[in-house]
């Protein structure tokens, strides 16, 4: 049995993705810059996301008649989906509240942050969503893709672990 391999010549080799990204990347960033209203950092993120989506389908896209036009469509769809996400509802402002807030206790804050840092990431996420962002167990469960009973049990165990980590320091920090 002959085990030599023969390679078949490709009919027409599609352009490599890196060449396409190098050639069209600047144009995608410029278009994204205009879409975002002048946010250069967001424009770069959107262009990178669009190129990432193209890379996953590059074999099919490279055979299209107009891959650059498809890339523009992917960029616009990426921008529109970004705008629909809740995380995009933050608005940058250059004005600040006129009234000063009561200064939080820095020692308590540092101690609580250290104790949170010692928790596993999932427990930390549960505590932050439940008690810092004041979400219900159902809302937290939806965000973390857990059941509400799992959120309640994780909350209970994470709080108990924080109490043991804080130990004697908790009473001294809360009641000075």
UniProtKB/TrEMBL annotation:
Organism domain of life: Bacteria
Domain RNA polymerase sigma factor 70 region 4 type as annotated: residue spans: 111-162
Family: Belongs to the sigma-70 factor family. ECF subfamily.
Stored InterPro entries: RNA_pol_sigma-70-like, RNA_pol_sigma-70_dom, RNA_pol_sigma-E_actinobac, RNA_pol_sigma70_r2, RNA_pol_sigma70_r4_t2, RNA_pol_sigma_r2, RNA_pol_sigma_r3/r4-like, WH-like_DNA-bd_sf
Pfam families: Sigma70_r2, Sigma70_r4_2
CDD domains linked to this entry: Sigma70_r4
Record domain RNA polymerase sigma-70 region: where: 27-87
Keywords: DNA-binding, Sigma factor, Transcription, Transcription regulation
Protein name listed in UniProt: SigE family RNA polymerase sigma factor
């Amino acid at each position: 049995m002959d085990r030599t391999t023969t390679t078949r010549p490709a009919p027409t080799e599609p352009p490599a993705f890196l060449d396409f990204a190098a050639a069209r990347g600047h144009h995608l960033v410029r278009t994204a810059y205009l879409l975002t209203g002048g946010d250069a950092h967001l424009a770069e993120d959107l262009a990178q996301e669009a190129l990432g989506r193209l890379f996953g389908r590059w074999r099919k896209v490279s055979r299209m008649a107009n891959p650059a036009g498809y890339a523009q469509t992917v960029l616009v769809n990426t921008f529109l989906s970004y705008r629909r996400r809740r995380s995009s509802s933050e608005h940058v402002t250059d004005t600040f509240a006129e009234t000063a807030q009561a200064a939080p206790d820095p020692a308590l804050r540092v101690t609580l942050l250290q104790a949170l840092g010692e928790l596993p990431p999932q427990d930390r996420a549960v505590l932050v969503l439940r008690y810092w962002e004041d979400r219900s167990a159902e809302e937290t469960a939806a965000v973390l893709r857990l059941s509400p009973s799992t959120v309640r049990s994780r909350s209970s165990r994470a709080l108990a672990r924080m109490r043991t980590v804080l130990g004697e320091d908790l009473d001294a920090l809360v009641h000075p």
